[in-house]
Amino acid sequence: MLLGAGRIGLGLAALGRPGYITLGHARDLTGDYEPGAMEDHAHSVLDAAYAAGVRYFDAARSYGRAEDFLASWLASRRIAPGSVFVASKWGYTYTAGWRVDADRHEVKDHSLATLARQFAETTTRLGAYLSLYQIHSATLESGVLGDDAVIDELVRLKATGLRVGLTLTGASQSDVLRRALEITRDGDRVFDAVQATWNLLERGAGSALEDAHAAGLSVVVKEVLANGRLTARNADPAYARRLALLREEAARLDTTVDALSLTAALAQPWADVALSGAATPEQIASNLRAAEVEWSAETEAALEALTMESGAYWAERSTLPWN
Ligand SMILES: NC(=O)c1ccc[n+]([C@@H]2O[C@H](COP(=O)([O-])OP(=O)(O)OC[C@H]3O[C@@H](n4cnc5c(N)ncnc54)[C@H](OP(=O)(O)O)[C@@H]3O)[C@@H](O)[C@H]2O)c1
Questions:
Q1: ∠ CA 111-21-92 to the nearest 5 degrees?
Q2: pLDDT (tens digit, 9 = 90+) per residue, 147-190?
């Protein structure tokens, strides 16, 4: 099965602010956090992605200036609304003040007031480009899926032609997704799309994502490189065995370990789009080699042993340092 570049999206979590949790974020940005330089850097990655055929872009209110950088890129390159698919998210407020060492990088609040404020902020920037608006990291604990005022407001936004979705995180992704699939208004399911973590280490949400896809939701896969842990940059001895398997299979297929990891997500029959989180033009070029990789039962079998227990995966994810 060959997979096309059109199913690969670019996420802007690493491009909109000085701090992020991917392994080598500080090195990628070379310490130049001047906003204009960061905007130029983000544009260079967007240019490389667009030139290679990427048309799906994912931002969030909490990714610093990601929405602004995406908006200025769309305008300066004269890209027409409708020729790209732009998704963003509400529910976290950026609080790092353009610092890497902030006490709190983002504050979560899934209230109707935050939805109203952030939707206005997002549309001021992305206007007619916005195709999909997602609850950022919906959880059962935040109560957002049981908040009728929020759900009714999402239904109102849908009536204007916008698609609405939710993103997931943590070991209970499947529980939250199954709850979301039950939410209806006037007999129609409310959510059009889900964005969830699935990668060669953490496959726990696979069955729920398969159900979501079968129910008609668009499924977007994120963190396909486990925030950098499934790349050549990961020198942690605890991953030596897993990375050796990945390197060996990538060499056999004449590709890169990051491209192979991205291919694994694209090869899932329920996956519509897989996000690259590339922080440099070189990374997007390497990631996009995924479109040329042929996934097979032999590759699946060779990489099966990479899987971790979900709880252990998410416990480690929560300790990744902002850099
Ligand atoms: N809850 C949510 O809604 C949520 C949460 C997370 C992410 N997301 C979305 O998903 C997107 C992707 O997530 P992510 O960036 O956290 O995870 P990821 O895609 O698993 O990791 C991307 C990172 O891998 C590293 N990388 C990529 N290619 C590489 C290469 N060729 N060589 C070495 N390192 C390479 C880079 O990090 P370093 O260079 O820094 O190591 C890059 O930033 C985000 O941009 C965002 O749109 C959403």
A1: 10
A2: 999 999 999 999 999 999 999 999 999 999 999 999 999 999 99
Among candidates 256, 264, 242, which has minimal Cα distance to 312?
Answer: 242
Query: Which numbered atom of ligand 1 lies nearest the CA of 226?
Result: 20
Distance CA 294, CA 307 (A): 21
The residue whose CA is least distant from atom 31 of ligand 1 is 283
DSSP state letters, 191-245: --EEEEE--SS--TTHHHHHHHHHTT-EEEEE-TTGGGTTSTT---GGGHHHHHH
Domains and CATH numbers, the chain: 5-310 (3.20.20.100)
pTM over 0.70: yes
* Residues within 6 Å of ligand 1 by CB: 11-14, 22-25, 28, 58, 89, 136-137, 167, 169, 195, 222-228, 231-233, 258, 275, 277-279, 283, 286-287
Average pLDDT, rounded, for the chain: 96
Q: What is the pLDDT of residues 33-90, one digit of tens each?
A: 999 999 999 999 999 999 999 999 999 999 999 999 999 999 999 999 999 999 999 9
pLDDT band at 3 (very low <50, low <70, confident <90, very high): very low
> Hey, which of 225, 273, 284 would you mutate to test ligand 1's pocket, going by the most ligand atoms within 8 Å of its Cβ?
225
φ, ψ of residue 167 to 5 degrees: the values are -110, 155
Instruction: With CA atoms as reference, report the closest residue to 84 among 92, 75, 93.
Output: 75
| Contacts of 226 by beta carbon, 8 Å cutoff, 6+ apart | 199, 200, 201, 202, 261, 313, 317
To 10 degrees, the CA torsion angle through 177, 314, 301, 193?
A: 30
- State residue 174 phi and psi, 5-degree precision: -65, -40
Query: How far is residue 138's CA from residue 144's CA, in Å, rounded to a whole number?
Result: 7
